[in-house]
User: Fold this.
Amino acid sequence: MAYEFQVTVDCADPHSLADWWAETLGWPVEPQDEDFIRRMISEGYASEADTTLHNGKLVWREGSAISHPDGTKRAPRVLFQLVPEAKTVKNRVHLDLRIGADDVDEVVAGLVARGAKALHTGRQGPHTWVTVADPEGNEFCVSPSAPPAG
Assistant:
């Protein structure tokens, strides 16, 4: 049997980080149902402390998610989850963004302009990448889709 999974990112500000990654990947932020949230509060299943306002909308405080724009259940999903502690060590798992024919340096410069930090450039044979940290310090790599032909 094949299993499905989502990637979960622990963070201090899940809604802002979800927005940042949604823009980075070109994926939508999953909408949250304000009426459902209000009903959960009125029925005693949640409290106002479980919510926050983000971009003028009532959302669950503890998390936000983005999903692949094809909208299928089997497509990748990334959940951004509120945790109390800050990131302190290097990631043991990270995302690799394969950007196709786009210019890596231009993409990295755009990410840095939006709050990321370029960490270092790597190379293995013809394959190159740039390791970057998102606004909360989570490392990821940016590379072309495939090594150059030749």
Observations:
- The mean pLDDT is 93.
- The beta strands are 7-11, 51-54, 57-60, 63-67, 77-82, 95-98, 117-124, 127-133, 139-143.
